[in-house]
Amino acid sequence: MIAVEQLKKSFGRHAVLRGISMSQQRGETVVIIGPSGCGKSTFLRCLNQLEKIDSGRVSVAGIEFDHAHLDHATQHRLRLHAGMVFQSFNLFPHLTAMQNITLAPIRVNHEPRERAETRARELLKKVGLLDRADFFPSQLSGGQQQRAAIARAMAMQPAVMLFDEPTSSLDPELRGEVLRVMRNLAEEGMTMLVVTHEMNFARAVAERVLFFDAGLIVEQGPPEQIFNASQNPRTREFLSHFADSDR
Amino acid sequence: MKHPLARSAVLLLISAALHSAGATDALQRVQSDGVLKWGADAEGGAPYVFPDPQQPDHFIGFEVELAAALAHKLGVRARMVQNQWDGLVPALQRGNFDIVLNGLEITDEHRQQIALSQPYYVYSQQIITRKDNPSLTNLLSLKGHVVGTLSGTVAQRLMERTGGIDVRVYPGQAEPFRDLNNGRLEAVMLDLPIAVYYLTKEPNLKRSGDPFAPGFYGIGLRKEDTALLLALNQAVAELRADGTLEKIYRRWDLWDKNQLLIADYHEQKLAAQTNASTFRNWRLYLPMLLRGAVVTVEISVLAMALAIVCGLALALLRLYGIAPLRWAAVAYIEVIRGTPLLIQLYLIYYGLPNVGIRLNAFAAAVLGLGLNYAAYEAENYRAGIQAVPRGQMEAALSLGMPRWLALRAVVLPQAVRVVIPPVTNDFIALFKDSSLVSVITMVELTKVYGMLALTTYDFMGLGLMTAAIYFGLSYPVSLIARHLERKLHHDRR
Q: pLDDT tens digits for chain A (247 residues)?
């Protein structure tokens, strides 16, 4: 579903991604962990072209591109197939939860409003916000906003969901509701690539964990190996910062 | 007189009384200073007073020579004080100079306000047309035609009294000739001296018909300066008797036998007339002001609509356009913001005909104001768009929206809210700036005020009425904007 070969990306003289290669199967949930500034978020943003790549080859949901070959049509198809959830939610503040969810289906896919709203209600029910359909983002808590944002991304029926630190700007007591929604998605067979610091989530839901450091994948494997049996000193050092309960 | 405030009020009164007592003795002051200050407008003032084309820091003209001759008779030097022509009388009353010597007609309206000397020149009205026009040879034949003249002149009043003439009023002398040449006007009617001078430089124009409606130019003085009036009357009489006047007028090709009428001049008793109170007669003046206000509103609304549309296009080009378009937008915004609106209006109205684009005054006014404010609106929108967090655009793009749709459906609706207060502010500013378009002959609210104030000299009453109309129109705009802002506020994060 996702295949990346030797992806490189620099901001000015600062090399953020120094040659990332990975692949992910359909239905697999992969979690990326690593210290701040290691390039996790940039990697995610490269996959749906919010950042241009400097070199390498990427294939997402059967759409291939490299730094030299990328036209607007490819970019558009790519984004249709890869949904994204942001750290800061980025709900559209001038629209209700319902309108946030139906905007793209109606304006991009030209779906009839009825059908878009029916599916939006199903999605709102799934994320537990059916009674908040007509609320504006400012009237929702952070956790509710993020759940609405997940529903919004799902409304375009993407093949892959990219989560960029979805709980990092939430208070601890609000994180659970978002993580539960994500866990349900994973159990339904959604292909998910998640950048997060939630080690419990990674341990419980991920089929594979990638440890990023300084623009490279330092170690990867099933969660038990990374969290309990890592032989890599960088991984061990990083994980030592998390309390045992988080591990 | 224990109270210090009361005491200083009395002191103020005394000094004011002393000041006006001093003013009655203007002749003495002129002689002790050795300078006679005369007010005139040298801007487009040929052949009266104007900058010498060979030596532009030096003024020439028949009135320059006349002022020198008069001052010589008083044993002093003459010094010209520049002042807008239609503001000469109020400026004289304020004490900016001793006399007005600048083609001031001896009329009852002027004599209500100031004293006028014995006449020094007999002017008449002259109609000027293009050479290919055989008609329009007298005042009545002008009915139904577009005719230009100078603001606040006898010619303007004659035509307005005749009725049925589409009179266009200009602040300067050169512009009506320009518009006659380029076809915006069918004729120009002016005092003969102006006609004589400009026709020497306009090969395509001609005098049409004979001069008519003779009248007198006199020197304007404050009413209390009686000693100076007597001295000047004496001086004028001597200059006429010794042939100096004739010599000056011949040099400027202004001598005609009408000048002999000066000898027959008898001051007519001024009909007893109290100053018109524009407040008491508001029924008469208010409708005229309101008609001007309608033009102001029309111009402002259309110009703002143009500014909003062009401003949005400029802002989008500046933010998202490809490099050359981006540079062009930046250049446009900087040049327009960095040059005066007045100059832009002149360029559009008087400059564009040189390259074959001839707009009427209304279109030029809307275009000039609209294109000027577009530059300011563009910067408002840019600030508004940039105030929308970048994550909004990214979220929209990640949902598969093309950039243009993301802009329209996500970014702009949020930017609008940010932009309402500064855009309202600009609309109110534009509304008031619209008064500038009177320089390209639009008769809007401020121009109507100016014309009425110069005939009634009630700057105060009319000014308050005009200001009230402006405020009455702009305040509701603020209220609507405030309401709109509050309405869009409920979904703010």
A: 899 999 999 998 899 999 999 999 999 999 999 998 888 999 999 999 999 999 999 999 999 998 877 788 888 999 999 999 999 999 999 999 999 999 999 999 999 999 999 999 999 999 999 999 999 999 999 999 999 999 999 999 999 999 999 999 999 889 999 999 999 999 999 999 999 999 999 999 999 999 999 899 999 999 999 998 888 999 999 998 886 555 4
The answer to whether B420 and B482 have CB atoms below 8 angstroms apart is: no
Lookup: tokens for B483:
């309401």
Q: Give the 3-state secondary structure percentages of chain B, helix then strand then coil, rounded to 5.
A: 60, 15, 25
Task: Identify from A75, A92, A110 which residue to disrupt to test chain B contact, counting B C-beta atoms within 10 A and taking the largest count.
Answer: A92
Residue A18 has phi, psi (to 5 degrees) of: -115, 30
Which residue of A lies nearest to B397 if distances are taken between CA atoms?
A79
Residue among B184, B189, B194, B118 at smallest CA distance from B160: B189
β-sheet bridge partners, residue B52: B55
**B367 to chain A, closest Cα gap in Å:** 34
Q: Of B398, B411, B418, B488, which to mutate for an interface test with A (greatest number of A Cβ within 10 Å)?
A: B398
Contact B397 A93 (CB under 8 A): no
Q: Is the dihedral angle over the CA atoms A194, A197, A203, A204 positive or is it negative?
A: negative
Residues in contact with A243: Cβ distance below 8 Å, sequence separation at least 6, in sequence order? none
Test A92 with B395 for CB contact under 8 angstroms: yes
Q: How far apart are CA B124 and CA B134, in angstroms?
A: 21
- Quote ipTM for the complex: 0.93
Q: pLDDT tens across B315-362, in order?
A: 999 998 899 999 999 999 999 999 999 999 999 998 888 888 888 889
Please give, rounded to a whole number of angstroms, the shortest distance from the CA of A244 to a CA of chain B. 34
Q: How far is A85 from chain B (nearest CA, A)?
A: 8
What's the token pair of residue A23?
């692949």
CA separation, residue B55 to residues A207, B142, B232 (Å): 92, 39, 30
Between CA B246 and CA B254 the distance in angstroms is: 9
Residue B243: which region, alpha, beta or left (left: phi > 0; alpha: psi -120 to 50)?
left
